[in-house]
């Protein structure tokens, strides 16, 4: 040992065969689980789980007929569901049944507990694997437009994780906010996507004015169409690069600004946050949802969906930022770095909340 330096010696021993065998078994389980995730996504997108949810045990032909699908494909899919212990198979009658206990986690009738929605991330990310491999070797990133179904999946994700909890859990995090919304305030949602959350707020609080910004023309168009269909005359959506927010001159400050899982994948997250601070009224509130995690890998080992979140970060959130020559912060930037960025943007009062039903997110209430 010299000075403060410490030499650590690692003992390399022969392979522990028990450990090696256990890890091998784990890898096989991982392959099976990955395959099932893909087939669960298929079951969700084709409506097979929804079709089976209210059915007694039925043949593959009957299930295919109800779902409006080709029987041969349905039969093979049922094979995967059977060996994966998701669907029950009665060989003597050649019938299949989705237990109600399983349907609760796989069907659209479960608006907040449908795990099948999240299974869609696996094929979505797999579709850009070649692009990601190229980035591993040469740097750079994969642009938003390569993720063809991203906004579809995110809208479903938001539709069962954020939108149903707005009234019951999220808005109450800010004392007095509901009363202010009822009277009428100006609200901005930065990175609004398809506008599911903002359109619900506009419908709930007709005396307030709501604006949504997003860089995606398709998402903004969808949000605007939904606003018109709902009769939300108090909601407008604009295509706007929110990295430039701090350089614009707003006609009047906003009383409430929200971001729902939208900061970490920006080209310049700190610039976005500075823009939010600039356009927020002195007595306003910035409410941010972002991924629950630590800024240190070892601290996320016990996260219930840590591997999934790091995979989404690597293959989407980080890379879309790098594709813009951005920071590439990634979804798992963590609470410590988030607080650092909020303070650097000019927020002096920051409260961090966790919701009992939500193990995926932190909810930050930020004031000047």
From TrEMBL:
Highest rank taxon of the organism: Bacteria
Signal peptide positions (record): none
Transferase as UniProt keyword: yes
Single GO term (MF): methyltransferase activity
Swiss-Prot/TrEMBL GO biological process terms: methylation
Domain Methyltransferase residue range list: 182-292
Domain S-adenosylmethionine-dependent methyltransferase Rv2258c-like winged HTH residue range list: 34-108
Keywords assigned: Methyltransferase, Transferase
Protein name: Methylase
Species lineage: Bacteria, Pseudomonadati, Pseudomonadota, Gammaproteobacteria, Pseudomonadales
């Amino acid at each position: 040992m010299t000075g403060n330096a410490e030499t650590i010696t690692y003992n390399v021993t022969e392979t522990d065969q028990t450990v090696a065998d256990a890890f091998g078994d784990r890898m096989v389980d991982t392959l099976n689980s990955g395959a099932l995730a893909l087939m669960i996504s298929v079951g969700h997108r084709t409506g097979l789980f929804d079709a089976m949810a209210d059915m007694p045990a039925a043949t593959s032909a009957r299930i295919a007929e109800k779902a409006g699908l080709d029987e041969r494909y349905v039969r093979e899919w049922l094979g995967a569901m059977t060996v994966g212990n998701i669907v029950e198979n009665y060989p003597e009658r050649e019938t299949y049944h989705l237990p109600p206990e399983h349907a609760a986690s796989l069907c659209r009738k479960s608006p907040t507990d449908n795990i099948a929605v999240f299974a869609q991330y696996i094929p979505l990310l797999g579709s850009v694997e070649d692009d990601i491999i190229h980035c591993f070797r040469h740097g750079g990133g994969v642009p938003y437009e390569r993720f063809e179904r991203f906004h579809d999946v995110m809208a479903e994700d938001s539709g069962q994780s954020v939108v149903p909890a707005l009234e019951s859990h999220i808005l109450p995090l800010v004392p007095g906010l509901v009363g202010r919304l009822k009277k009428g305030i100006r609200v901005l949602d930065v990175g609004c996507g398809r506008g599911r959350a903002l359109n619900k707020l506009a419908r709930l609080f007709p005396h307030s004015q709501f604006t949504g910004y997003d860089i995606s023309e398709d998402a903004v168009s969808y949000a605007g169409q939904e606003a018109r269909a709902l009769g939300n005359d108090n909601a407008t959506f604009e295509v706007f690069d929110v990295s430039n927010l701090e350089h614009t001159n707003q006609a009047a400050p906003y009383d409430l600004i929200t971001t729902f899982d939208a900061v970490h994948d920006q080209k310049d997250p700190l610039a976005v946050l500075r823009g939010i601070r600039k356009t927020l009224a002195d007595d306003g509130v910035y409410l941010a949802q972002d991924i629950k995690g630590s800024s240190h890998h070892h601290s996320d080992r016990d996260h219930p969906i840590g591997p999934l979140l790091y995979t989404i970060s690597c293959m989407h959130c980080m890379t879309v930022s790098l594709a813009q020559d951005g920071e590439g912060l990634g979804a798992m930037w963590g609470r410590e770095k988030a607080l650092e960025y909020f303070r650097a943007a000019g927020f002096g009062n920051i409260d961090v909340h966790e919701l009992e039903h939500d193990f995926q997110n932190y909810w930050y209430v930020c004031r000047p």
